[in-house]
Structure formats: C-alpha cells, structure tokens
Write a structure and sequence with these properties.
By secondary structure, the protein is mainly beta. It has a single domain (4-20, 27-199), classed as monomeric porin ompg (Porin, Beta Barrel). Helices cover 8% and strands 64% of the residues. It is built from one helix and eleven strands; from the N terminus they run αβββββββββββ. The chain has an eleven-stranded mixed beta barrel with strand order 1-2-3-4-5-6-7-8-9-10-11. The longest helix has 15 residues, at 4-18.
Length: 200
C-alpha cells in the first residue's frame, strides 16, 4: 500500500483542486462522485448515490446492472443503466465498455459508450464517449495515471469533449480515489472531477 506521506500528498493535491480560490478569471466546473460496485461471477452491480455537478447544482443518482465477458482479445462489459437527477429528469440507457491490457498488464486501454433515452419531456436523449489510456506504475495498481476523454452530445445541443490527465490511487483493498483535470476541446472551459470508488 501507499505510505502515509504519499497518501497525504495525494489528498493535499486533491484538496487544492477542490478549493481553487477566487483568483481564477473563470470558475472551473467541478464534479464530485461516489461509486459503489459489487461483482460476483462476472455479474456487476454499480450504484452511484452521489454525483454532484457544481456550476449547474445538479445532483444525480445512477443504477447499473451488467455482465462481464472475458474475451481472448480483451474485456467487454454491458450494462443496463437508469439515472435521475434533482431537476425531475430521468433516463434509461445502455453502457458498453471495452478494455484491453498490454505491456505486461501495465497499460490499460478502455473505451466506454453510453446511450440514453429520456423518460419524460424534460429529459433529452444523449450519448457519451469516454476513452482512457492509463499506466500502472506498480504491479498491484496502487498508483495509476494517464489520459482521459469525456465527451457528451445532447440532442439539439452543442457537444463537449473534455481531454485531460487523471491520477488514481488505491487507498486500501476496497477504496480508490481518482482526480481528473480536463479542458474542453470546444472551449467550454476546465473541469475538475473527484471520484471515490468503493469495491465490495
């Protein structure tokens, strides 16, 4: 596991991004998430009880049920997806993930696609594209860093596609923390994202 000093340095870095001060000319978008996951016999249950977007004051909850398919050319996961937020919007969707591990399992390449159908007139159809390329700095995956993309297109609205750097630290056997710092390719600004993953 990480030493106490390494954990303190990582948490200090996360806190510095969380409270960037008022000197910035433009307030960055900030997202805070907690994701709980259970996996048994390649069946996967995910619950995100807290996903808060700072500027829009949007609080969302996600439920996912899926299945992992271990293939000779990679790892494929398919999910049914339900989400709703505090603005009376709700969606039913599909999430498809494909992962590939190479360079002695150190280089992690993933592509995630999400498609959503709105369940009421307030909820527009949309889709996401989320590619990542991470590198494990140790065999046990205690520290992982790399590049990520986070793109979204809502029907009849302009898209965004954030590109940036991610760092993922395993705090103990069940808890991981991710911080991401990204810039939108279409000029919407900066997004900082913190995610706590809890695996059961």
């Amino acid at each position: 596991m990480l030493t106490k000093i390494q954990k303190i340095m990582f948490l200090t870095f996360m806190a510095s991004l969380m409270f960037p001060g008022t000197a910035r000319a433009r307030d960055p978008e900030r997202k805070y998430s907690i994701e709980l996951s259970w996996e048994r016999n390649d069946w996967i249950l995910k619950f995100r009880p807290f996903d808060y977007t700072y500027l829009s004051r949007t609080q969302r909850m996600d439920f996912l049920v899926g299945k992992r398919f271990r293939l000779s050319f990679g790892d494929f996961r398919a999910f049914g997806y339900f989400k709703f937020d505090n603005k009376d919007k709700s969606w039913l969707g599909t999430r498809l993930d494909y992962g590939l591990r190479t360079l002695k399992q150190r280089l992690l390449l993933d592509l995630e696609l999400r498609f959503f159908q709105g369940l009421n007139e307030r909820s527009k159809n949309h889709f996401y594209v989320i590619p990542t390329a991470y590198y494990k700095f140790d065999q046990k995956g205690r520290f992982i860093a790399g590049l990520s993309g986070y793109g979204k297109k809502i029907v009849r609205e302009a898209p965004f596609f954030y590109i940036g750097l991610d760092a993922l630290v395993r705090l103990n056997k069940h808890i991981r923390a991710l911080v991401s710092y990204s810039t939108d390719a279409y000029g919407a600004g900066v997004m900082i994202w913190w995610i706590i993953y809890v695996d059961f």
